Amino acid sequence: MGLGVGFNKDDARRQAQVVVIDHNTRIRLFGPKVDPLGQVILVGNLPCTVIGVTENKKNIFDTSKNLNIWMPYETASGRLLGQTYLDGITVRVKDGQPSKVVEDNVNKLLQKRHGTKDFFTYNLDSVMQTVQKTSQSLALLLSLIAVISLAVGGIGVMNIMLVSVTERTREIGIRMAVGARQADIRQQFLVEAVMVCLIGGVIGIGLSFVIGYVFSLLVKEWQMVFSVSSIVTAFICSTLIGIVFGFVPARNAAQLDPIEALARD
Predict the structure, then answer these.
(1) pTM score, two decimals?
(2) How many CB atoms are closer than 10 A to CB 19?
(3) What stretches in the chain show pLDDT beneath 70?
(4) GO CC annotations (predicted)?
């Protein structure tokens, strides 16, 4: 709680006309300089006293336009809706507890108190499982797209390096003639392939920073977070792609015959 207090059991029993508001509601109704505690606001046609203000916590689902007001359920049911009974109960299960067992226990308790089963229950665990399966499928799809993109990019790098070997055949022959070993030629072209991939990785990371910054300016409620581990992983992947797809051009360059290489234009 940022300011004041929350309502208690006595407030609920008395159907007290008290409310707790969030930071956005405070700014919208009273402004940043006015103390909202003790102020009276109308909720529908019901005057209520503000007794608390929640902390200003932002998340991706909240926007500055959302105004949240909380009051005791008994007050809302009895004074606003004119009901003296519950038409629904939400049960929150602790982490690690089997929701199916909790659902069965709730059913037994309610049936024992009602004498008959004049109610129904809905377990969100099935919905959560569906959401998890959907998330896993989406993650798998994105991973496949990433792998395909890396493969296409690697093939592009390999083609570029093969063209480079063809165009620099005479240069390779001269280097071999003056004493360069096959390992030296292979290392040269592997390093070039890795450098091409690393430059591409740097450009991609730079573009992601720019796009994320622009997006955060357009949508102020979203905050882009860039982790160091992701950047390091991108550089490692770029290096591996350069080594894997640069090996064939480097091997071809190292296996050239110096005499034939010098004889080519």
Answers:
(1) 0.56
(2) 22
(3) 58-65, 221, 265
(4) plasma membrane
